[in-house]
Amino acid sequence: MKKNSAKAVHHLVDTYPKVPLTVDCVIFGFEESKLKVLLIKSDLAFFQGKLSLLGDFVKNNEDLDDAAYRILKERTGMNNVFLDQVKVFGKPDRHPGGRVITIAYCSLLNIQHHALNIHENELDWYDYDTLKEMAFDHLEIVEECHSWLQKRIQEHPLGFNLLPDKFSLRELQNLYEAILGVSMDRRNFRKKFASMDLLIDTNEMEQDVSHRPGKLYQFNFDKYEKKKRKWIGIDF
Fold first, then answer.
1. What confidence tens digit (pLDDT) does each residue in 100-130 have?
2. Could you read off the pLDDT of 122-158 as tens digits, one per residue?
3. Of 11, 67, 75, 146, which alpha carbon lies 20 to 30 A from 195's?
4. Are 56 and 71 in contact (CB under 8 A)?
5. Considering the entire predicted model, what is its pTM?
6. How many whole angstroms from its chain centre is CA 6?
7. pLDDT at 1 over 50
8. Pair 81, 27: CB distance under 8 Å
9. What are the helix (H) ranges across the chain?
10. Cα–Cα distances in angstroms (integers) from residue 193 to residues 27, 140, 169, in the given order
11. pLDDT for 162
12. If you average pLDDT over residues 193-218, what whole number do you get?
């Protein structure tokens, strides 16, 4: 009975419309006070020379999350990156060859901690601020993921993973300004973080910098873990 039931369901699914499903990975990084995106040059003649996200088709027997991690590893060689599913993009005309639905996955990582082991199709980090035109609707996907990232970084202290273990308040402000795309008042920014009581003063100063050396701090992850249930985010 069960076999017949399974066959009936399989036959029913076979009658459904067939729409290709893909995954696109939007990988943000931070380096030299700039927000960057990991991109390649499209290998489709239709988009020759244009930048593209790291993407591919989902296999028939593959979970979506597994597909995202597989694609990222195949394209970059990286396998220690946490991915978040952000949004589905399914406009009928988003692909020149017909309807293709894609699921965007996003991550934010420290570029210095993740070496690129593959460099095919000019895989590299590109400044987010310089992106103007991309293959498919990938610029729209990047912008949607950037909006998601801006919200996430105010809700969770993700940014501290992008900084050295010991960092100055100048470096911290540069990070938030780069991701949020705004210029912040220095005094108000420092008051905001001081009021959260999550920074540890290391009693050390910056060395070999071109500006006036600042104090070095560490983020108190232990204290954050104890307080995170009451964490209401960072309101700039």
1. 999 999 999 989 888 888 888 999 999 999 9
2. 999 999 999 999 999 999 999 999 999 999 888 887 7
3. 146
4. yes
5. 0.87
6. 40
7. no
8. yes
9. 2-14, 64-76, 138-155, 169-180, 186-196, 221-227
10. 27, 32, 9
11. 85
12. 88
| DSSP codes of every residue in 51-113 | EE-EEEEPPTT--HHHHHHHHHHHHH-------EEEEEE--TTSSTTS--EEEEEEEEEEGGG
Q: 154 or 71, which is more confident?
A: 71
Alpha carbon distance 44, 52 (integer Å): 10
User: Which residue, among 116, 233, 125, 104, has the nearest Cα to 180 in the 3D structure?
Assistant: 233
Please state the φ and ψ torsions of residue 35, each to the nearest 5 degrees: -85, 130
DSSP state of 121: G
174: phi then psi, degrees, rounded to nearest 5: -60, -40
Written as six digits, the tokens of 147 are 């909006």
* Residue 220 Cα distances to 75, 189, 197, 201, 217, angstroms: 35, 18, 9, 10, 9
For residues 114 and 78, the answer to whether their CB atoms sit within 8 Å is yes
